[in-house]
Amino acid sequence: MSIVLDASLALAWIFERPTPAEATRADRVLDEAHRVELSVPLLWHTEVANALLVGERRKIVTEAAIIDYLARLDSLPIVADSVHPAMRRNQIMALARQYGLSAYDASYLELALRKGAMLATFDRKLLEAMKSAGGCVFE
């Protein structure tokens, strides 16, 4: 089994989610992390870093907590997609147009569909796009 890990879900490991069900889903993905392949598009690292910086600036999370979180992330078998985004640009744009997604979100969708992987995200629009495209979501 392979999972494409959206930043929204990975960030639930440091930022509290609004419902217990979402927190449980994030914990289940974390439990699976060493048994499955976790894939991310290249932009994932920048998305995560930006969210952490915003959280730090808003005093939601401390620098020390971020350092600990990043060390835990580094211990996970997260693999960035080896296909350069320019090679997938047309497919990403087509998916973004078809499902009304941003190019960022469509990059997760494209990767999950290409790999035949489940998509793990809290983004409702992205979840619906994945289901509409015939893909599987981690629930």
Summarize the topology.
Elements (H helix, E strand, L loop, with lengths): L1 E4 L1 H4 L9 H13 L4 E4 L2 H15 L5 H12 L3 E3 L4 H15 L3 H13 L2 E3 L3 H9 L7
Parallel strand pairs: 1-2, 1-4, 2-3
Helix pairs in contact: 5-6
Key words describing this protein structure:
single chain; 139 residues; alpha/beta; Rossmann fold; four-stranded parallel β-sheet; 7 helices; 4 strands; 10% strand
What's this, in brief?
The protein is α/β, with parallel strands linked by helices and 139 residues long. It has helices spanning 7-10, 20-32, 43-57, 63-74, 85-99, 103-115, 124-132; strands spanning 2-5, 37-40, 78-80, 118-120. It has a single domain, classed as 3-Layer(aba) Sandwich (Rossmann fold).
Your description of this structure?
With 139 residues, the chain is α/β, with parallel strands linked by helices. The protein has a single domain, classed as Rossmann fold, CATH 3.40.50. The chain contains seven helices and four strands. It has helices at 7-10, 20-32, 43-57, 63-74, 85-99, 103-115, 124-132; strands spanning 2-5, 37-40, 78-80, 118-120. The longest helix is centred in the middle third of the chain and has 15 residues, at 43-57. The radius of gyration is 15 Å and the shape is globular.
